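Hypothesis: this fold can be encoded by more than one sequence.
Test: take the structure tokens below, design a sequence, compare later.
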């Protein structure tokens, strides 16, 4: 039983005790008291037993228990609303706060500033495919999307643009440059014990978000033209991420072919990454870099 003074304090009445009213509130029968199908007699007996005497507060009859319950509920609702707002805010901010780049300007990428020349036919067709995938993500479909092609054709730009559109739907999104992720992990392992960027940090981040971009997969293995595969450590981390995202969509960008992916990573990992996936393959699109070096 709550102390009456506590109740009154809780509902903001701190001056001298109000007077008792003559009426009772009959709303407070504990759940365990009545049988499953109570008779009217049983109900009224319980009501008499657990009635709460009302009080006179500024001329009104008030049940102190009801006032207290309402106040508790109001505070709970307020707290849960606050929590909801802050967790939505946090989700929205994941992209800015926790993405991992080598080139920070990628954060500015949107569909609006993805500019194509009139003669970039392939890129134009592929843009439609990306927008189609975005639409399906918005509808809740789950699949992995691969953007494949040489450096500079705009894969990272487009994938970031997708995340920008998705995060307004109260989804958490993060963009991870794979090579940079491993660089930070090694730094945390060997150089800076204080660094937050541990293996566990990245695995947790990459598995918990609704949408993940793993940007430039394969760059972390060094020269792709050698037969050098990913190290056991890198494979293990990627496997943990991919296994943790089996019911979530991941966007990969890479300049590897699927054959190279299979030879570079262990079969199970490659299988998981390529399962339930669609690929958009840039074959003819010139990189921005090449365009600028044409003369
Ligand atoms: Zn009451």
């Amino acid at each position: 039983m709550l102390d009456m003074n506590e109740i009154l304090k809780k509902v903001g009445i701190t001056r001298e005790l109000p007077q008792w009213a003559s009426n009772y509130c009959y709303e407070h029968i504990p759940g365990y008291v009545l049988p499953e199908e109570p008779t009217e007699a049983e109900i009224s007996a319980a009501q008499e037993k657990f009635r709460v005497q009302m009080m006179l507060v500024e001329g009104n009859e008030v049940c102190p228990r009801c006032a207290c319950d309402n106040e508790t509920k109001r505070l709970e609702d307020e707290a849960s609303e606050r929590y909801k707002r802050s967790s939505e805010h946090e989700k929205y901010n994941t992209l800015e706060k926790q993405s991992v780049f080598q080139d920070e300007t990628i954060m500015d990428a949107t569909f609006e500033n993805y500019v194509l020349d009139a003669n970039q036919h392939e890129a134009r067709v592929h843009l439609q495919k990306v927008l189609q995938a975005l639409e399906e993500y918005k509808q809740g479909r789950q699949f992995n999307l691969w953007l494949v092609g040489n450096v500079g054709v705009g894969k990272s730009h487009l994938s970031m643009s997708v995340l920008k559109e998705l995060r307004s739907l109260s989804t958490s999104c993060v963009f991870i440059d794979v090579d940079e992720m491993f660089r930070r992990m090694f730094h945390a392992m060997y150089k800076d014990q204080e660094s937050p960027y541990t293996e566990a940090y990245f695995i947790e981040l990459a598995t918990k978000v609704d949408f993940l971009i793993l940007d430039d997969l394969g760059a972390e293995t060094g020269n792709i033209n050698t037969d050098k595969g990913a190290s056991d450590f890198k494979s293990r981390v990627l496997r943990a991420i991919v296994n943790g995202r089996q019911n979530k969509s991941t966007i990969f960008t890479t300049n590897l072919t699927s054959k190279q992916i299979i030879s570079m990573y262990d079969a199970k990992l490659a299988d998981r990454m390529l399962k339930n996936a669609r690929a958009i393959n840039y074959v003819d699109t010139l990189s921005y870099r090449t365009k600028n070096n044409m003369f």
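The beta strands are 19-25, 52-57, 60-62, 144-148, 173-177, 211-217, 249-254, 277-281. The first strand starts at residue 19 and ends at 25.
Hypothesis status: open.
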